[in-house]
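Milestone M4 deliverable, item 7.
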Amino acid sequence: MRVIKLVCLVLYYCFARFLPTSYTPIVGKPSKWIRYQLCRNIFAKCGKNVNIERGAFFGRGSLIEIGDNSGMGVNCHLPSNTKIGNNVMMAPNCYILNMNHAFDRTDIPMCQQGSTPPLTTIIEDDVWIGRGVMMTPGRVVKRGSVVAAGCVLCKDFPEYSIVGGNPSRFIKSRL
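Output delivered:
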């Protein structure tokens, strides 16, 4: 089983990652299918009708969970411990961090303090993440939320929130 995961990971990063986007005429659907088949064998959980777009990067991907009808946009960058629910739309160029530089001590340079422990980002069901969103480590994007394009998501918000800006702020509720 580990050999299959490794082969699929190599095929993804050497070949499938560079196939055309899923919306490219004629070759888009086969490209989407190839990426999906490889990622089904890489991820811890991969739902039905999942779309991994061209250029998506997810490290080793062994802990990624992604639900039905969800996707990673073109050139998205996710750590390998991300959890994505059902019906999640992720636009191009989203970037999710899972750790940060440590900077607690002032007696030694920050570059010598190492990193914080990795944190898991959780994206719940029915979420829309706009283009170019950056998430700091350990965010929980609640059910039904919209994260506006270009947002730097640095804190968590209630369900059905519309958030945006840098730093992120609550705009309004969808309820």
